[in-house]
Amino acid sequence: MGQIVNEIVKSRKTFFIAPDKDLISEYFLEDYLAKDYECYFVEDDLKQPLDVKVQVILSIFTDAIIFFNIDYHIEGLEWFTYIQRLCNEHPRVCFGVMYAKRKTLAEKASIEHKYLYNIGLAGGCIQLEYQKNINFVLIERVLFANQAMGRRKNVRAVCTKNCQFTFLNSRHENITFPLNDVSVSHFSITLTDLQAENLKLKEYEKIQNLCFTIKGMRFVSDAILYMKRPTPEGNLFVFAFVSDTGKIGLDQFKKKLIVQKMYEIMHENCTSLIETNCTSKMVPHNFVTPPKKAYDFDPSVLLEDF
Asked: pLDDT by residue for the chain (306 residues), tens digit each?
């Protein structure tokens, strides 16, 4: 279990704290994942105050990028003071803020001066527009500027359950193996010495018509054995998907489907880790969960441009 947790936490992740879903959609997160950006929403609820969740994120995800929606109102919280303290306590973490478009350039300049110059936020200060499609592009540019992809070539979803593939061996027997992880280009399994001996595959050998089940979604794909090596957990086999045209990777239709399941897996893994570590021992800094959503500016100004 410890190895699985290590795999989940080590990749770079971007967290949007208390996002305004009228301006950015949760569907954005799947689309960003398809571009190899691993992003999550962290919302306010009655179970744990937001600052407890932020503490947990900072304690277990060592390579995190965190954006705060400074329009979200929480009783007793002054965003500038709170974010400034976090920057001082965690100087290696990339923090940023986002907010809805203001009526005047002077208001925008004031916010930028506070957060970019007074605090020196490395993540940026994003003024969101009224149209979600514009905001998708704005956030994508910020993710690129902050190298939110990390050092990896493709995002991998770490499989904990309900992920497997089946193939027909040389003796015409159906053999099923659970997946370690899956991406849009590769997947891996770990086998015992006996299982590895029975598999009898050579490196770069192609296997046809593998039947995959990923969280209830089924599809068939060819694959080649990309690499195999011994590990403390067993014999690691890494495979590359092969498309119908013979290229490495999945066809576009299958890729779109698997990205949805990858996001489902990764969201469950990340949420579970945060909730597990949000214990009563973690005392909030200086604010409590509000009874309902509120904003630090008048939302009616958004209607004036329509």
From this structure: 567 788 788 889 999 999 999 999 999 999 999 999 999 999 988 778 898 999 999 999 989 999 999 999 988 889 999 999 999 999 999 999 999 999 999 999 999 999 999 999 999 999 999 999 999 999 999 999 999 988 777 789 999 888 999 987 667 778 889 999 999 999 999 998 888 877 778 888 888 889 999 999 999 999 999 999 998 888 999 999 999 888 888 999 999 999 999 999 999 999 888 888 886 444 444 444 343 444 444 434 333 333
DSSP strand pairing (186-191 vs 234-242): antiparallel
Q: Are 243 and 251 in contact (CB under 8 A)?
A: yes
How far is residue 285's CA from residue 199's CA, in Å, rounded to a whole number?
A: 55
Nearest of 128, 146, 143, 161 to residue 25 by alpha carbon: 128
Cβ atoms of residues 222 and 207 within 8 Å: yes
Q: Is 10 left (phi over 0), alpha (psi -120 to 50) or beta?
A: alpha
Determine the distance from the C-alpha atom of residue 119 to the mean position of all C-alpha atoms in its chain, rounded to a whole number.
26
Indicate the burial class of 4 (C-beta count within 10 angstroms; 0-12, 13-18, 19 or more): middle
